[in-house]
Structures are given as C-alpha cells and as structure tokens.
Amino acid sequence: MLKKQCCSLLTTNYKIMKRFKFTIVALIISAVILLYSYLTKDNNQKGSKPIVISKTEISTNAAPIPGIELKNAENIAAVETIEPLEPKDISEVEENIPDLSKNISLKDILNSLKSDKEEEVLNALELLAHRGDESATVQQALASLLESTKSTEVKSEIFNLIFMFDSKRRMIDAINKMLNDEDEDIRDSAMDNLVEIETKKMIDYLIEALDNKYSDVRENALMNLEMITDQKFEKPEEWKNWWAANRAKFKFE
Fold first, then answer.
1. What distances in angstroms separate CA 101 from CA 63, 68, 132, 165, 167, one per listed residue?
2. What would the pLDDT profile of 178-200 be if each residue is shown by its tens digit?
3. Rounded CA gap, 149 and 143, in Å?
4. What does the CA dihedral 192, 195, 201, 203 come to, rounded to 10 degrees?
5. In this structure, are residues 137 and 110 in contact, taking their beta carbons and an 8 Å threshold?
6. What is the DSSP string of 146-201?
C-alpha cells in the first residue's frame, strides 16, 4: 500500500515537474512528507498508552482529558466526599481538647515563677492564664514577681494576665510601683490596671502620681482623676486638699 502511494505520488510530481518545469526538490519533499505521516500514524496506534497522574497533579473539577486516568480513583472519590469543618465544628473540637494546665499542680507553676530562666517564667504565666486562677496565693506570687523581675516581657505578660481579673486589690501596691518603670508601655499598663481597682487607695495613688517624674504618668493620672471624681483642679495641691476633705464620704458611682 505504501509503495503504491509513493509510486503514484512520484509519477504525479514527475508529470507536474515536466509540464511546469519544477525542480527535483518538489518531488523529494512530497515523498518524504507522505512517508513520515504514514509511519507516525502507525506507531501512535500501536504503542499509545494512557498517561497516569495522581490527585495532586490534576483538579477533579476539571473536564475529563482523553487518554488520562486518575491514580487511585476510589481514594480520590472518598476524599471528595469530605466536607470542610465549619467554625462551629472547630469550636466543638477545641472545647473537647483537655486543658493540660490543670494536670500541673499550682505549686509547681508558682515555683516556676521563681525561675531565673525567662522562658520558664513566661510558660508558667501562660499556664496560669489557662487556669483562670485569681486566688490570693496567685495574686501575691504575681505581685512579688512584678516587683522583682527586670524583664519587660515578663512584666507585660503579668499585666496582660491580671487585666482580665475581676479583682486585683491584693496587687495594688505592686501595680502602683510600676508607674515609675523606665518603660513607657509598662507605665501605661500599670495605669490601665490601677484605675480598674475601685478603692480609695487607688485615688490616693493617682493623686501621688500627679508629682511623678514622668510626664505621661502625670497626664494620665490627672485625666483619670477628673473622670473618676468628676472634679477638675489644675494643681496637685488642690487635689490633695479636696481629697483630704472628701475621702471619708467619697463613693464610686
């Protein structure tokens, strides 16, 4: 069959060449093209195999591609049936995760607060945050740590922890001392925590803070005094005189 096609093509090209004076190149090119096309088609029919790819190499949402088969089709179908977790499902899972902090005794956690290693102290503070313990024992330990530590990060974490406490009256003295800290962020955190302690002692400390060496502390103390007492004085001495006359009968609204 191939020989007949070649001979026919050669004869035709020869006549054309003779009539129109084409060069012999046209004859050779035509024969080569025909031979190559025939051989290529024959090999593709005999040796073609489907291409196998994995799930990660093709999107199952794409249209089917002829000659391509997905590997482990059953497993892929199973994966496709899995629905993503909704936020409510995630919250249910989180609620069922055991609180490991309760498996560690409070005594061990408080002992870790005395460690010289900052990382161990920070881990202990995190455990206390998970426990939600606001007992007198915990507050005393935190107050002691707040006054003794030189780590700004530890101080910051203590303030983050106690900010959520319902009551922190036992820590008021230690918090007030932080108004003199070298770090402005620590002073701000101390002020934020101090004004949440609704006791007359808090107002005592705010009036003292009007003479603080740091301007930011003086300004915040004045602002909070005006908001808490609904009074307005310009000089620290005026505040002291008013407080001396009204301390006994003053009530928080």
1. 52, 53, 10, 18, 22
2. 999 999 999 999 999 999 999 99
3. 10
4. 110
5. yes
6. HHH---HHHHHHHHHHHTT-S--GGGHHHHHHGGG-S-HHHHHHHHHHHTTS-SHH
The ranges assigned to domains in the chain are 1-41, 105-171
Which amino acid, residue 57?
E
Q: How far is CA 121 from each of CA 25, 110, 117, 215, rounded to the nearest angstrom?
A: 90, 9, 7, 32
Which tens digits make up the pLDDT trace of 107-162?
A: 999 999 999 999 999 999 999 999 989 999 999 999 999 999 999 999 999 999 99
Q: Which amino acid is at 233?
A: F
What would the two tokens of residue 111 be? Answer: 């002992």
3-class secondary structure, 68? strand
Identify the sign of the CA torsion 232, 234, 236, 240.
Answer: negative
Q: Which two tokens stand for residue 170?
A: 């036992």
